[in-house]
Hints:
Blueprint: E1 2-8, H1 14-25, E2 36-43, E3 50-58, E4 61-69, H2 72-96
Parallel strand pairs: 1-2
Antiparallel strand pairs: 2-3, 3-4
Helix pairs in contact: 1-2
Amino acid sequence: MEIRVKSLKFDADQKLLDYVEKKVSKLSRFSDHLDEVDVTLSLLNEPDNKEVKIQTHAYGQDLLIERSASTFEDAVSVAVDLMKEKIVRTKEKKFEA
């Protein structure tokens, strides 16, 4: 699985990139159909100004999760957990039919 990380409006340090890579790579356990995952990190002008967007394609559908938090680590963690659930639900729907 290829993980592409983009940071908008700032330069992400290696520690953050490693954290994102570690967390997002766990998604491969839930589906063999994940070839690539795009992760976008951006800064907003809001109190919870760290936004994470995780986007992938699985089972014929585009899957997208966006989350904001006070730290990128929190936003990535929540977004990855939600993406896991979304992948599992999509997989179950695909094989129920």
